[in-house]
Structures are given as structure tokens and as C-alpha cells.
Specification:
globular; alpha+beta; Peptide Methionine Sulfoxide Reductase, Chain A; six-stranded mixed sheet; two-stranded antiparallel ribbon
């Protein structure tokens, strides 16, 4: 991410934009809970700036925190993770209320507008294992639903290439440095944000109007 902050003219012309695809609803999704509660899951889908920015606008998400998942505590810092050798993925911890948004709805947002789940160890202009696609589940039910949705999307041949998203549990999440939190809100005119992340947030508002909360971007 850091090495591409100063974008060249070529990068400005070729950098990724928000995925344009229509996905089916997860057939095995659970209904909304009858009472308010709190669940947690961690998503990784490229640079955490855009992942956080999208989930912050989803109804029922209480918090979305940028951070690192998959490696050791003593390597959970940006400069080390950027080397791609720590086992960490740039990720976002999403705390949500299952009475307002289902896990299946979060999955649909993740696979449709957050990132391209067929890109292996990269996302758009960012390359390395730290940009891999992954779902770090916190409950067996989350694992079941994530695996089932990937199977459903694969069977439906929604993507031309194989989905490479990892579904794994038991990984500790470490919050990223303060200057990485809410990066889109704090730096809306930064070229990387304008090219790569704002289109994703706008796609969420366009394609998921019933889930959208917050001001338009």
C-alpha cells in the first residue's frame, strides 16, 4: 500500500475500481435475531482502508477497526506487515448487531463490493500475502455460512476464476496504528482513496440501499 501512495499516470489509468457484479443472497443465511446482540468477525480483502470504509456504512455494524490478523503479536505493525513475511493480512474487525444485519448480508457485501475474491495474494494494485482474501471467523456458525456461500457462488459460476478466499479461525486480531483508522474519512482526496476505495463505498450505497447508513460520498 505505502509504496503506491505516489501514483504514476499509468497507475491512475489502470488501478482497480469497485467490482461490478450482482451476487445471489446466501441461501443458508439465518434470519435477523429477535433481540439486539453483538457478534464479531474479521474480514481481509486487500488494503484495510477500503474494507473499513465499506463496513462502516453498513447498517447494524457497530464498529469496524483496521488491523492485522494471521501472524504474531510482535510483528503486528505496519512497517513489518508490509514486507509480506509476517503471516498477517491487513484486515478489519467488524462488530455487528445480528438483529440489524445478518452474517449472510455481510458476506454478500464482502464478496460483491469490498474486493475481488478471485485474486490470490493481491488486490488491485497491491501485491503480497498481506493483501490476501480471508474470513477469520469467530463462531462455528460463521464458518458454516461462509463455506456454504463460497460453495453456492462457485456452483453458480458467478466468477470466471476460482474463489481463493481463506476461511479460518483461531487467529488473533491486532488493531492497526491510529493513523490507519478511518483513513477514507480523514483523507478523502488522497489519490489511492479516490481511485480504489471511494468507488467501493459508492457501490455499497448503490447496490445495497437497504443496508446503507451514513452520509453519501
Amino acid at each position: 500500500m505505502k509504496k503506491i501512495l505516489l501514483l504514476s499516470v499509468v497507475m491512475l489509468l489502470t488501478a482497480c475500481t469497485a467490482p461490478a457484479r450482482t451476487l445471489p443472497d446466501p441461501v443458508q443465511d439465518e434470519p435477523l435475531a429477535k433481540t439486539p446482540g453483538q457478534e464479531t468477525v474479521v474480514f481481509a480483502g486487500g488494503c484495510f482502508w477500503g474494507v473499513q470504509a465499506v463496513f462502516e456504512h453498513v447498517r447494524g455494524v457497530r464498529s469496524a477497526t483496521a488491523g492485522y490478523t494471521g501472524g504474531a503479536a510482535n510483528t503486528a505493525e505496519y512497517e513489518r506487515v508490509s514486507d509480506g513475511n509476517t503471516g498477517h493480512a491487513e484486515s478489519v474487525q467488524v462488530v455487528y448487531d445480528p438483529s440489524q444485519v445478518t452474517f449472510g448480508q455481510l458476506l454478500k457485501v464482502f464478496f460483491s463490493v469490498v474486493h475481488d475474491p478471485t485474486e490470490l495474494n493481491r488486490q488491485g494494485p497491491d501485491e503480497g500475502t498481506q493483501y490476501r482474501s480471508a474470513i477469520f471467523y469467530r463462531t462455528d456458525e460463521q464458518k458454516r455460512l461462509a463455506d456454504a456461500y463460497i460453495e453456492q457462488l462457485t456452483a453458480a459460476k458467478v466468477f470466471r476464476r476460482k474463489i481463493v478466499t481463506e476461511v479460518t479461525g483461531g487467529k488473533q486480531f491486532y488493531a492497526a496504528e491510529g493513523y490507519h483508522q478511518h483513513y477514507l474519512v480523514n483523507h478523502p482526496d488522497q489519490p489511492y482513496i479516490v481511485i480504489n476505495d471511494i468507488p467501493k463505498v459508492r457501490a455499497l450505497q448503490r447496490d445495497f440501499p437497504k443496508l446503507w447508513v451514513g452520509k453519501s460520498i
